[in-house]
Amino acid sequence: MPSLLVRADAVVSASGLLGDALEIADGRVVRTGNHRDLARPGLPEVAYPGTTIVPGLGDAHFHPLGYTASLTRLTMYDATSIDDVIDAVRATAASLPPGASVVATRLDEHRLVEGRLPTRVDLDVIDRPVLLYRVCGHVAVANTEALEASGVGPGTPDPPGGILDRDERGHPTGVLRETAIPLVSEVVGTRTRDLTPNEVTGALTGLHHLGLTRVGAMATWGHGLLAGGPSELGTLLQAAPELPIGVDVFLIAGSAYDLDTAARAIQAANAPRLRFAGVKIFADGSFGGHTAAMRQPFADVPTTGTLRLDDRAPAL
């Protein structure tokens, strides 16, 4: 690749102003400084007036498959009422085979006029299993059909690290917090259940266009994000040859053995933009979902959240 001089109003790094131009050779920045010093006969130039050049940006904590789902699957981002939520689910259900479940993301009760999460009763107007993930990913809502298909009822105990919200009779309301989500998602499906490698690389290409050149990617090995489902790492491994940016994987693994197996799988892929970076362990939940572990109850909800650390953490 021939050398190229790129000129802007400024070239800036963490150490400050480096000049107004940089030279690229063989895909790498080889010099930075002022245009008058770097320009030379025969060196092609391209100018971007009115711009500033900075080093590639990195997002240290990113969920590539969850992000891909938010772009390519049903989301509740634009919903401003529970009726909007129901209408969106109905529209998607109309395009699916009979009985197929509807899974959506980015539900945010603070954007709804009701100021609350929908319940199974609200969603029971849909005649198929429905599972809606809250925007934080730590909370989801299921309708009665989804709960019954998963065997969740009044006698179902809260799983370790999770909560099934209940009504005054002790019946689940459909709101699932933290590790209660897999009770339903392992049957109904996760938000990342059918994503393709091409969809993932397409979403990451969009990030590249925004200036991101690397992400710290949270990914599961063996189960979907926060809940059961296809391995997220498996999808990343399939996408590895076409990844447009660096993906440093922090693995969500159920055991030290799983972690080691997954790390070896990344190394065996020998993909230049995919590497093992470490482990991701959930300590607790989210503030918005009222599942963050607190010493005192939240001001608006009488709960101290959920602590998710268990005996696996030291081994991991």
Please describe what this structure looks like.
Residues 224-229 have low confidence and may be disordered. The protein is an alpha/beta fold and 316 residues long. Helix 4 (120-123) links the parallel strand 7 and strand 8. The strands form three sheets. Strands 1, 2, 3, 4 and 5 form a five-stranded mixed sheet that branches. The longest helix is centred in the C-terminal third of the chain and has 14 residues, at 256-269. It starts with a strand and ends with a helix. It has helices at residues 35-38, 64-72, 82-93, 120-123, 144-149, 182-188, 197-209, 232-239, 256-269, 312-315; strands at 4-13, 16-25, 28-33, 45-47, 52-53, 57-62, 102-107, 130-134, 139-142, 162-166, 172-178, 212-220, 246-252, 274-279. It contains ten helices and 14 strands. The chain is elongated, with a radius of gyration of 23 Å. Helix 2 (64-72) crosses helix 7 (197-209). 26% of the residues lie in helices and 27% in strands.
Proportion of strand residues: 25-35%
Largest sheet: 5 strands, mixed
Spell the H/E element sequence: EEEHEEEHHEHEEHEEHHEHEHEH
Rg of Cα set: 23 Å
Shape category: elongated
Structural class: alpha/beta
Identify low-pLDDT runs.
224-229
C-alpha termini separation: 44 Å
Assign a percent range to the helix content. Answer: 25-40%
Count of extended strands: 14
Number of helices: 10
Provide the residue-averaged pLDDT: 93
